[in-house]
Specification:
Protein name: Oxidoreductase
Helix content: 10-25%
Pfam families: Oxidored_molyb (PF00174)
InterPro entries: OxRdtase_Mopterin-bd_dom, OxRdtase_Mopterin-bd_sf
CATH superfamily of the largest domain: Oxidoreductase, molybdopterin-binding domain
CATH class of the largest domain: Alpha Beta
Structural class: alpha+beta
Bound molecules: the ligand Nc1nc2c(c(=O)[nH]1)N[C@H]1C(S)=C(S)[C@@H](COP(=O)(O)O)O[C@H]1N2, molybdenum atom
CATH architecture of the largest domain: Alpha-Beta Complex
Number of strands: 10
CATH topology of the largest domain: Sulfite Oxidase, Chain A, domain 2
Organism: Streptomyces diastatochromogenes
Largest sheet: 5 strands, mixed
Shape: globular
Strand content: 15-25%
Amino acid sequence: MKPEPTEEPEGRPIGRRVFLGTLGLGALGVAAAPVLQRGLEGFLGSISGKDPTGLTGLLPNGGGFRYYSVAASVPHKGPADYRLTVDGLVDHPHTYTLADLRALPQTRLVKDVQCVTGWRVPGTPFEGVRLSHLLDAAGVQAAGKAIRFTCFDGTYTESLTLDQARRPDVLVALRMQDKDIGHDHGGPVRLYVAPMYFYKSAKWLSGITVTDQVRPGYWEELGYDVDAWVGRSNGRTDEPTS
Ligand SMILES: Nc1nc2c(c(=O)[nH]1)N[C@H]1C(S)=C(S)[C@@H](COP(=O)(O)O)O[C@H]1N2
Ligand SMILES: [Mo]
């Protein structure tokens, strides 16, 4: 098993419901009480570094999702201060506000989500702007061959080839589960790469930089596949998601 310290051993069938049953709702209440001060993500971030057993799965109302962050704490951003920059090998670099992104054509997809450690969430709606739309608006130069994604957690990065990035099932997502994406799921804006393992779907997205070659992302530097097709990478045989 490759290192992904906030995640569980591969294929271990422990979902949120099982945890609630095991620990009891009282335990969740005790664990959640001190969270209100610092914010849930600070709490989860702080335990995630020490506890690889899956306690980070206790995301209230997560709907089967688990909370991941490689950063101990992440600033909150909203309509007033969120910005997404598109730059690099483009003719027209641009910075979008949340309102700008909301004003663009929205695409809604409903597919399974698959994490490389084994958990899968069926039929999850994601909605947002096609990445291809932003790339077309920016005017990718001939030398542009790949995308580097950066995040306002200050740490996480991701990558796609230009061809992958232009797929119609790759979104700059504003909504997940038919709600605006909350902070814990990477809101207000996260990447959504439907056909790939969920580590490609960078949370707290703040930068889209067109580069001349693929620069491996955070987990990819640690051994995960750059071409992370569900069922055709990372030595796994999951059912494809898109
Ligand atoms: N910025 C950022 N994005 C990230 C991660 C992260 O740690 N930081 N983890 C990745 C991994 S491994 C997974 S499985 C999903 C988890 O998304 P969730 O927290 O909404 O369940 O986010 C992906 N995107
Ligand atoms: Mo993951």
